[in-house]
Every structure is written in C-alpha cells, then in structure tokens.
Amino acid sequence: MEQWTKKHILGIKDLSRDEIETVFNLAASFKEISQREVKKVPALRGKTVLNLFFENSTRTRTSFELAAKRLSGDVVNFSVSTSSLAKEESIIDTIKNLETYHPDIMIIRIESSTSLHTLTKYTQASIVNAGDGRNEHPTQALLDMFTVKEVRGNVENLNVLIVGDIMHSRVARSNIFGFQRFGGKVTVCGPSTLIPYEFQNLGVKISYDFDKAIEDADVVIMLRIQKERQTSCFFPTMREYLDRFALTPERLRRAKKDVIIMHPGPINWDIEISSSLKEQVHPLILKQAENGLAVRMAVLYLVGTQKRELVEVE
Amino acid sequence: MKILIKNATIVNADNIFEADILTANTRIVKVAKDITPPEPVDEVIDAKGKHVFPGFIDLHTHLRTPGREDEEDFLTGSQAAAAGGFTKIFCMPNTLPSIDNEGLAKWIFEESQKIGIVDIYPVGAITKNREGKELTEFGALRRVGCLSVSDDGVSLPDSLILRRALEYAKMIDILVVEHCEDLRLANKGAMRESFISSKYGVSAIPDIAESLIVARNIEMAKYLNTRIHLAHISTAKSVEFVKRAKNEGVKVTAETCPHYFMLTVDDIEENSFDARFKVNPPLGEKKDVEKIREALRDGVIDCIATDHAPHSHAEKELPFEDAPFGLIGLEFAFSLTYTHLVKAGILDLKEIANKLSANPAKIVGLSHCGVIQEGFIADIVIADLNRQWIIQEDKIRSKSKNTPFIGYQLYGVVEKTIHKGKIVFNEL
Fold this sequence. Notes:
The complex is a heterodimer of chains A (314) and B (428).
Chain A: H1 17-33, E1 48-53, H2 59-70, E2 74-79, H3 82-88, H4 91-99, E3 105-110, H5 115-119, E4 126-132, H6 138-152, E5 159-163, H7 170-181, E6 185-189, E7 205-207, H8 210-213, E8 219-222, H9 228-231, H10 238-245, H11 249-253, E9 260-262, H12 278-305
Parallel strand pairs in A: 1-2, 1-3, 3-4, 5-6, 5-8, 6-7, 8-9
Chain B: E1 2-11, E2 16-24, E3 27-32, E4 43-46, E5 51-54, E6 56-61, H1 74-83, E7 86-91, H2 102-115, E8 119-122, H3 138-144, E9 148-150, H4 159-172, E10 175-178, H5 183-186, E11 191-192, H6 195-200, E12 204-205, H7 208-224, E13 228-230, H8 236-247, E14 252-256, H9 258-262, H10 265-270, H11 286-298, E15 303-304, H12 313-316, H13 333-342, H14 350-364, E16 380-390, E17 409-419, E18 422-426
Parallel strand pairs in B: 1-4, 1-5, 6-7, 7-8, 9-10, 10-13, 11-12, 13-14, 14-15
Antiparallel strand pairs in B: 1-2, 2-3, 5-16, 16-17, 17-18
Helix pairs in contact in B: 2-3, 4-7, 7-8, 8-11
C-alpha cells in the first residue's frame, strides 16, 4: 500500500481513485475480522477516538463506534443536538474542550454543510466526516461502492441511478463524486423541485422519468424521502411522489436483470420501496450495513495509523 | 482653526487640478494657486505629490450602537471611518433597539458631535421596529436631521407599505433606501445559489431574490414618480433593471460595495468556507463582478458604499452556514476602489471623487459637501496614491476584524483626513 497522506476524510471530493481503492482493499481484509471468534485487532490500541454526533443518528454512530472498538481504539460517544448545544457553548468551544483530551480521531456528524472545513482549524485530531449537512457522507459512498464491487466484482464504468431528494442529500453528492472517479455515469432522478439545476455541471444526467432511467442502470440508489418535504411544497402529496419515484415491482421489471438496488437506510417501506420487494432487495441493503462497518474500520485505520506531524491549532 | 494645504493635486468629480486649499473654521474659504494667507494659519500641509479628495461619504454602514457595542461603537466606528477617508457616514437602524424614533436619532447626532471625528447620520427605520408593518414618523426623523430611512437587513415585505413609504417620504423629502431581497425566495440561504453551493450542499439564495425586488421597487418608484435608492446592488440582473429604469427617467439611484466588484463564490470555496466571506447579498459569479464594474464605469451604479458590518470574532469563527452575514469595509473601500478599479483602468481617477463623495452627497441631499470648492464644508482627504499597504488584522481600527481582505496589498494610503476644518486622522 502506498503511504496514506490524507489527514482528514472530509469528502469523496478530496479522494483520488487510488485512495478509494486503498480503502476497499483494507475493508476487504477487515471484513474477515468481524467474522472471527475474537473480533478485535490492536491497530488503534492507545488511540482515542471521539464519536461526535451533533445530529441524530443511531446506525452510523453505532457502526463507527463498533469499528473503532474492533480496532482496539478507546472510543467515547458524544451525542448532542446543535440546537441544545447552542444554549451551552459554541461548536468551536466544544471542539476546543475535547481537544484538551488529545484525541487522535474525531468522527463528526453535524447539521450544517461544510462545517468540518472550519472545525479542522481547532484540533490536531483527524476529522472523519460522518455527514455534514447536505455536503457529504463519504463513508456511506465508500460502503456503497465497496458493496457494488463485492457483488459485481467491479465498480468501474457503471451506470448509476440515484433516486429521490437529491438536493438535500449528502449521500447523493458523495456517491456522485465516488462513482465518477471510477468512470461511472451518474443519473439523478427525482422531482424537479428537488434537483438543483446546477447539478448538470457536476457531470450528471438529470432525469424526471424513473421508468425510463431505470432501464440502463447497473446500480440504483434509493434515497430516503422525508415527509416534511411535502409541507414545504417540494411536491404536492406523498401519493403523487410515490406514483413517480417509488421503486415498485413494475418498475423493477424494466431494469437490467443484474441491477443492484441499494438504500442508505433507514428505509420507509412502501414509500421509497414497495414492501413486496422486501425479500428481493433487503438482503443486499443489509449487506451494505455490514460493509459499512468494514469500510469505517478501514477509514479509521488509515487516518489513525499514519505518521503525523504536530501542527499548530488556534 | 485654519489649515493651508499647499501644492495639492485636487481630485473632484469633474476635474483634476493643481491648487492650494485654505480652510477656516468648518469651511473651505479659498481654492487657488499659491495662496498667501492674509493672516497666520494654524497648520500648513505640503501636499506635493499627494492627491486630495473631497471627504468620502458612506451612505451605508452599521455601527452596532445601541445594542452591540461589543462589535462597534461610535468612537471606533468614527476612527475607522476617518482612517478610510470618510467624513460622513450613515448608520443603518438595525440596532437594538432599532432607530425608529426621533429620540434615538437625536441622541446619535449628539453623540457624533461629542466625538467629533466624523459626522454620523442615523438612517431612520421605515417601519416601527423594522417589522414592515407601520410607518415610523418620517417628519420627526427629518426634523432632527435624518436624511434617509431604511429597514436595511430586510426588504419591505409588503408592497402596500412600500407604496405608502415612498408617497409619504416624497412629502417629507426624505430618501427611502431599500435593501432588495425576496426573503421567502432567499429561504435562509447562506451563499449565492451556484455550482459551488450545489456541489457542497450549502443552503443558497438565487440571484433573482435581489432583482425581483429591484424590479418591484423600480416599478413602484416609477408609478408614484418618487425617488428611491437601492442598497448594495450585487447582481448582473439587478444592474439591467436599474439601467433600463434610468434610461426611462425613473428617479432611481443605486449603490454597490467593494466586495461586489472584487469577490465571487469561488473565493468562498478557495477559502474553505471561511465565514468572513459570508455577506448579504451574497458574493456572486464572475459575470456579476464584471457587470458591477461595467455599471460603475457607465454610471448605472451611482456610488460605492461599504455596508460596513462588524461582527464579533466568536460569531464569525462559526461554520459558514451558522455564522452571521457581513464584513467590515470603512478602512479599505478607498484603496480597494483605487487599486482594483482606477489602476485597473475601469474608472477614471475623478470617478473616486464622484462615487465616494459627490454622488452620495447628491443622492442623500447633503448640501455643500462632496466637492472641494470655495464655500463648501472643509471635508478633505489627502492620500498618497503611489504608496502601498497591506491589510493586517492587528492594524484594523474597527472594533471587529471581520474582513475577507486580510493580506491584500493595495495602492493608495490615506495620510490625512480633515473633517469640518479639523485634522481627524493623521497617518504619519
């Protein structure tokens, strides 16, 4: 393996194809550890990992926590919503306070986009983005691509279709940058109100016709749709949304035989995906979750074991 | 007090010429070659090789007083203004409480007189508590000296209130200054809707949030045949509306700010979403910057204001989406304009005196200001255009340091500022 040089994992935007492949290779070997009787290696022994969730999450938080533990890191969870945080102290002060414990890695989920760019100034630790606003969710894209690679044997030059609320989705952004690194052609599909016009300049195709777009897809990523998008007038009713953008057995029949259906979870059955497809699609979606653990172990290993020079922080 | 300025190269909006200037008390009493004063003067300034401008007038500044004196107060704001060559500044009413009554306005005039560095003109609110519902007492505000009213920070959300404000202001002869932003459309965005906002998922404001309200305001002023002044114009589309309106004879005037002819959304990305680049209206695209420069050149935009908006360090170190809008500008506006518009060949040197002095005076109705001329107020800036300086945080006089221009090397150093015949800033 080439020497890993990235201190932080802020987004897929910043990762090269080689770096992503390094994560995949490591994740494949870490996956095996989780199947052992003793599920632990000493890679991060003596390292302090802070799992900071300023926005609700159970799955991603648990996955990161377990990943750190299986690498023998000392992990501390810190979950508080930024709204209640605001009353007590600023996010910067929180980071500065935690910095006094000399953590090695801070895994952070936060509500506002690009926050982590700012927070890197206040800590020596490596920051791993666990989702920042609408910007990126890099480990989700890494685990999605890793899963595709595992199932198909390759992740190169695929037609990838991302369906749903593109505008508010960090998962969409990270997957676009990720699959594009491997020559993928990404199409985003959803209501016209939920796809920023500027996305065409990201090199993606915009479609409002799921029936047609699904035909060429090798991979379909269904995004979670939030009910409050209806009340803020992005679409008139959930019924009309589902009519166009739900994955139904009829739509799935139009797809290629070997199409891979993914969902970052948690799924609203009978909203994004018909529950009649549960048996067909759920096993792979659960595999995503399993791979998430391995990918997060890989990411923590890479940023946690690199040689680091101390830099001055504010 | 009498000051004699020798060998000055005087830059007025319509001519540049060599002469001496003699002031007595608050006025310029003589502008001529080789003045020999009949009686001794208190101070002789040799301005050989320097350029001398009429004192700059900022129609749009925020002094955070009352309410946020931790960010700026009248003294530090006055010092920053004088250091930037400004002698008259208009402070916006988005204070706590807002300047929506004659008592508060009068107090500000009195404080400004006490400090005596520059003249601070309070801008009255258009509506009580800037809530967009009931008009303030324009007559009472005008009587204590206010020349303009604005609900700056927000647009008037109600077109009927806008109509009433413009009609009523016409009778009182007070200038209505509108912040142009469709608040619903802006939807609490943090930056301009653009490729970069889409790429990083940053909540965003489309450019038409400004131009829609620009168009509304122009239509209203045209319909009512009243004047209106449009604050901090930042988009190419707004410029088109203003240009057309001026051609049709609508009594509309417009200002822009240095950051709108300097910076774009790309600067936000290049600076890793540093909140010092967060301002409202938000930084636009390259085409906006080009159009704003063109509009300044062609006179579609009448003047340059700073929109000086101090914020505490704690507020501006927050992540981009969480930090407040605004940046400071009093100390840099002149040098940014000179370096990036005049030296860059976009504006003639005289245009500095036009955009920063003569036009703002005309727009707001300040008589005997904005020109170096016998009988006019002795507000004078002496600058060395050949000297360069670098904007450094620890040298900033404003109480807040939030500027995206730290590290910029600029031409044009303000060496002395004279306000009403008194030297109020001396760089050397």
